[in-house]
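Reopening this ticket.

The earlier resolution said the output was attached, but the attachment link was broken on my side. Pasting everything inline this time so it's all in one place.
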Amino acid sequence: MRFSGTNYKNMSVDELREKIQIVYFEEYEDEEGNYIKSKIPVVKWEGFAKVLPLSSKIFNGYNEVVNELDYRIIIRYREDIEYTDMILYRGRKLKMLNVPFDLENKRQWLQMDCKELKEK
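Inline output:
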């Protein structure tokens, strides 16, 4: 496997095997002038990515069990991906932990570190 750790130099398009969607929620203004986010996601981009589970955390507290799973997602470079966008992957909703960044500053790969959102 050519992809290991933070070595992206030999990564090829063949390694983008997982289907994802990047979505956003439109904002609109109501009659009182307040901005409201739509509840229906709008697909910004749909394609293939390399999805790597980063870490898993389990917290056991008083009457509480919380599972968290962080992912690192790598796609072909795009300029229209924003921090506020959400990623849909295998029925999971992922929120970005930081601003997506260009690997090696070559405008070839875009990396997004994400956290799975749990529905309550």
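Reporter confirms the inline version is readable. Residues 79 and 105 are 13 Å apart (CA to CA). The radius of gyration is 17 Å.
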